[in-house]
Specification:
The modification N6-lipoyllysine is found at residue 65. This is Glycine cleavage system H protein. This protein is of the alpha+beta class. The protein has a single domain (9-120), classed as OB fold (Dihydrolipoamide Acetyltransferase, E2P). It is 21% helix and 35% strand. The chain is built from four helices and nine strands; from the N terminus they run βββαβββββαβαα. It has a six-stranded antiparallel sheet. A three-stranded antiparallel sheet has the order 4-6-7. The longest helix has 11 residues, at 119-129.
Length: 130
């Protein structure tokens, strides 16, 4: 069973989002997603200052099984990326909600965060696909 933290919001494409305040949001892929993908070998994060649009692909996670697009859960501008992933992509597997974060977005509309799935909604999504 996948771990679904109660303080996060989720997209239906298995990205998690955490509010850091002041319109900044940290984004990663969920425990469920990393488990399906398997051992990560490379993470291609977006460039700082690049624009994101809800639902558009903005990063790629490559594992021993497959490469998978990562979609922007919010519209905005990338303000930080997790540089540790270039040398240690396995952090996404070992700590998807902590050291395995991918990037941070300065959101154009904080309301988009409220539109994401709450933990119960995300758990229901996972249950439907298992």
């Amino acid at each position: 069973m996948s771990y679904v933290p109660s303080e996060l919001r989720f997209s239906n494409t298995h990205e998690w989002v955490r509010s850091e305040g002041d319109g900044i949001y940290t984004v990663g892929i969920t425990d469920h997603a990393q488990a399906l993908l398997g051992d990560m070998v490379f993470i291609d994060v977006p460039d700082v200052d690049s624009d994101t649009e809800v639902g558009e692909d903005c990063a790629v996670a490559e594992s021993v099984k497959a490469a998978s697009d990562i979609y922007a859960p919010l519209t905005g501008v990338v303000v930080a990326v997790n540089e540790e992933l270039s040398d240690s992509p396995e952090l996404v597997n070992s700590d998807p909600y902590g050291d395995g974060w991918l990037f941070q977005i300065k959101a154009e509309d904080d309301g988009e965060f409220d539109d994401l799935l709450d933990p119960e909604g995300y758990q229901s999504l996972i249950d439907e696909t298992e």
